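Figure 6 in text form: structure in, sequence out.
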């Protein structure tokens, strides 16, 4: 595969060749997106000194790719990222913010240090490009800090590419104190090129995959099937209680068999756990079994939000998933306020529970 370097290149042709080699459908809307990100690259990484001096407008330093679930956003940005040969970092947005909060916590007693400035300066010393996958804002702590954080990121000339299901104007919609979030939206609209990838089909659902690892309803037959599948997976493996330490907190996995973990839904999503906990769990697992997945509504929306985060991380870490549930995957219900991000969850579960292994 050709490399993205300082000389002119044709990302469109590289992408078409990539799709042919992988047996992927070549979609014209995806091609338009590839052309757009190629322009972003040429503007930001292929300009000489004189052209930058005489340029009338500032470059857009961010490429914000928005689209519905399963349309190939991550695939396109992964392709660009893999070909980008300058210094770079790829993170799920949850991990990026955890890194920032950790840095902030470690330096909280040093009044001489501006945490945001120093965090960004450290990033700039290491990377030319940051790739944030699944960008979304769901909590007030992040919402209140993103404006200052990304102003500094762009002021330092760091380039950022984003994948997301949410348009910039709709970020943190109906969130607490959203008026204080508006400056961040203005920064994003000013400094980012927003590209919409519109495709009607969800490729994760359209693939000829059988969801052999999503079992329903909750009855004796499903119990027999999940126990049989679990015995097959854990044959000749040693059971232990796995203890994880997460910032001084202990989390016990009661059923852990050399990379295979079995949970009841409530153990993961009806406790005060978050992205950092789920990342730690996923890092030591090849398979995760979740039993008794419920339907969601306004009465268990907190549990649903945790489950959305959990699935995002399992998907990012390429962990195989087995689920038992009361309802078919296509019939799982959602709290109204979480219906949009839950579309992504359902789409990813089609892939994670398919008969094709992801790891």
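Output sequence:
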């Amino acid at each position: 595969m050709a490399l993205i370097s300082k000389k002119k290149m044709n990302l469109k042709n590289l992408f078409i060749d990539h799709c042919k080699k992988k047996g992927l459908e070549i979609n014209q809307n995806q091609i338009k997106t590839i052309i757009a990100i190629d322009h972003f690259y040429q503007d930001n990484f292929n300009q000489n000194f004189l052209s930058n001096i005489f340029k009338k407008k500032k470059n857009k330093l961010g490429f914000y790719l928005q689209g519905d679930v399963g349309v190939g956003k991550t695939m396109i940005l992964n392709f660009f990222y893999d070909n980008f040969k300058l210094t770079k970092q790829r993170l799920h947005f949850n991990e990026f913010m955890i890194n920032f909060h950790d840095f902030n916590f470690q330096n909280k007693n040093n009044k001489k240090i501006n945490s945001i400035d120093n965090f960004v300066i450290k990033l700039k010393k290491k990377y030319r490009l940051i790739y944030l996958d699944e960008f979304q804002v769901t909590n007030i702590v992040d919402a209140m800090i993103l404006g200052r954080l990304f102003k500094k990121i762009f002021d330092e000339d760091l380039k950022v590419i984003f994948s997301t299901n949410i348009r910039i104007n709709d970020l943190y919609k109906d969130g607490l104190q959203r008026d204080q979030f508006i400056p961040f939206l203005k920064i994003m609209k000013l400094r980012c090129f927003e590209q919409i990838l519109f495709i009607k089909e969800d490729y994760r659902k359209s693939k000829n995959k059988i969801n052999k690892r999503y079992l329903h309803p909750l009855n004796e037959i499903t119990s027999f099937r999940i126990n049989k599948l679990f015995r097959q997976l854990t044959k000749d493996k040693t059971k232990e209680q796995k203890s994880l330490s997460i910032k001084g907190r202990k989390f016990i996995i009661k059923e852990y068999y050399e990379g295979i973990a079995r949970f009841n839904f409530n153990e993961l999503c009806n406790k005060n756990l978050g992205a950092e906990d789920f990342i730690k769990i996923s890092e030591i697992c090849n398979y995760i079994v979740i039993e008794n997945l419920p339907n969601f509504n306004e009465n268990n929306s907190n549990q649903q939000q945790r489950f959305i985060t959990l699935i995002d991380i399992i998907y990012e870490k390429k962990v195989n998933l087995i689920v038992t549930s009361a309802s078919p995957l296509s019939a799982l219900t959602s709290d109204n306020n979480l219906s949009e991000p839950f579309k992504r969850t359902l789409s990813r579960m089609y892939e994670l529970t398919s008969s094709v292994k992801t790891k």
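Caption detail: The domain at 11-197 is CATH 3.40.50.300 (Rossmann fold).
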